[in-house]
Write a structure and sequence with these properties.
heterodimer; A: alpha/beta; TIM Barrel; eight-stranded parallel barrel; 9 helices; globular; B: alpha/beta; 2 domains; eight-stranded parallel beta barrel; 10 helices; about 50% helix; about 15% strand; elongated; deoxyribose-phosphate aldolase activity (chain B); lyase (chain B); DeoC (chain B); cytoplasm (chain B)
Chain lengths: ~220, ~250
């Protein structure tokens, strides 16, 4: 197995996160050798600056957390984030279009973002708390067909986070064609290992330090 | 008092479908609300539905965290206006405010304002995250940026508008901008309290117009009458056209 820390996107996405919070997040990511830091797009530049000369990547969220911004705005946000230094993008699927069964629009939304970053890692957040089993299967299929490198469970801002059952479903659809990122509510070493043993290749969490040091965190994401 | 003209009828949740947006616009027409408020992905649809009415379309940018890059907020706002939005609501960058990086907070707002020119700009402060001094500071930045409306809440944070915060905002900005309250305003009485406290606009996802509930009661009676008649006579076409006339 890879080192546990390399599974972790060290995450801070709350609206009130300050410059100092981001600097601390980046320092922790360097110390614990996390895969990336995951931040809102207004902090891409700052995170990149903090992480220059380090292998830690910058991951930015797009259309976050509702996924309901128009496609063109998602494209503009992505391009800006990439030019500010983002290495990976986590976009939220348009859940409203999905619920309207306008699968074509859902797919185009994802394809348009992928087109901005053909060689970089795109993760598509399904927000599984809003979806039933059939919808999770369908959303996973659409995301993968539209160019997602990862399908990701949750924003951490919905009504619930990752569950073992949802991840198993996603894994069965992905079947090697895409990787899985589990996020939302993963706060301790034991839970993290459960997901990794299911074949999850990335964890989004604010509790990365607790996870790698074997403690339990009080963070909510 | 008819408060329908104060109301932005709002649907911003992630799972809102096309059907939900259509219902929202129809109810807004029926009640004569001032505006509907929707996410940018649905502006073009709302524009189609409301094109022949005076109901305005408000849309959001950087919503609900306010933490998207300025460039992304600018682009989203511009695109929404192009698609037919009459008003833009942006969330203030709370992280910058909390970092005391007021220059960036102001720049974020002014850049959006410049991009949308004469389209009214509302700025959401998200008061649930701010203390009194921060609310006052946020208001003064909004005034420096010449925003049209200061709005209390996104509706996606831990809590919404409060009367206390509304009064603080009113005292700070006086009549230099309008105040819009939102988040948890779910009935007529509450809405009235805010209007008395100095609010100019109300954002709500609940249909709080008392006229509308009496209309709904009236309609329910009509539906019932024709449903009963329909069962007996089994002539759906005729029943339907009579019913639709009576509903008008």
């Amino acid at each position: 197995m890879k080192q546990l820390s390399s599974y972790i996107d060290h995450t801070i996405l709350k609206a009130t996160a300050t410059k100092d919070d981001i600097i601390q997040l980046c320092n922790e990511a360097k110390t614990y050798q996390f895969h990336s830091v995951c931040v809102n797009s207004c902090y891409a530049t700052l995170a990149k600056e903090q992480l220059k000369n380090s292998p830690v990547k910058v991951c930015c969220v797009i259309g976050f957390p509702l996924g309901a911004m128009c496609t063109e705005a998602k494209i503009a946000e992505t391009k800006q984030a990439l030019s500010d230094g983002a290495d990976e993008i986590d976009m939220v699927l348009n859940v409203g279009f999905f619920k309207s069964k306008d699968f074509d629009a859902v797919s185009k939304d994802i394809e348009a973002v992928k087109k901005c970053m053909p060689n970089l890692t795109l993760k598509v957040i399904l927000e599984t708390c809003h979806l039933d089993e059939d919808e999770i299967i369908k959303a996973s299929e659409i995301a993968i067909q539209s160019g997602a490198d990862f399908i990701k469970t949750s924003t951490g801002f919905g009504t619930g986070g990752a569950t073992i059952e949802d991840v198993k479903l996603m894994k069965s659809v992905a079947d090697g064609k895409a990787k899985i990122k589990a996020s939302g509510g993963i706060k301790d070493h034991k839970t993290a290992m459960e997901y990794i043993n299911l074949g999850v290749e990335r964890l989004g969490t604010s509790s990365g330090i607790a996870i790698v040091t074997g403690k339990t965190s009080t963070e909510s994401y | 008092m008819d408060i329908s003209k104060f109301i932005d009828y709002t649907l911003l949740k992630a799972t809102s479908s096309e059907r939900d947006v259509i219902n929202l616009c129809n109810e807004a027409k029926l009640n004569g609300f001032y505006a509907v408020c929707i996410n940018t992905a649905y502006v073009a649809l709302a524009k189609q539905l409301l094109d022949d009415t005076s109901i305005k379309i408000a849309s959001v940018t950087g919503f609900p965290l306010g933490a998207t890059s300025t460039a992304a907020k600018v682009y989203e706002a511009k695109k929404a206006v192009e698609d037919g939005a009459d008003e833009i609501e942006m969330v203030m960058n709370l992280g910058f405010l909390k970092s005391r990086n007021f220059v960036s907070v102001l720049k974020d707002i002014i850049d959006v304002k410049l991009a949308i020119k004469d389209t009214p700009l509302k700025v959401i402060l998200e008061i649930s995250e701010l203390n009194k001094n921060e609310i006052i500071k946020a208001c003064s930045i909004c005034l420096d940026a010449n925003v049209d409306v200061i709005k209390t809440s996104s509706g996606f944070s831990k809590s919404g508008a409060t009367l206390t915060a509304t009064k603080i905002i009113k005292k700070t900005i006086k009549d230099q901008a309008q105040i819009m309250v939102s988040g948890g305003i779910e009935d007529y009485e509450t809405a009235m309290k805010y209007l008395e406290a100095g609010a100019d606009r109300i954002g709500t996802s609940k249909n709080i117009n008392p006229a509308s509930s009496s209309l709904q009661t009236r309609n329910a009676k009509i539906y019932k009458k024709y449903l009963d008649a329909n069962h007996k006579q089994n002539n759906s076409e005729a029943q339907y056209s009579k019913m639709s006339q009576e509903l008008r």
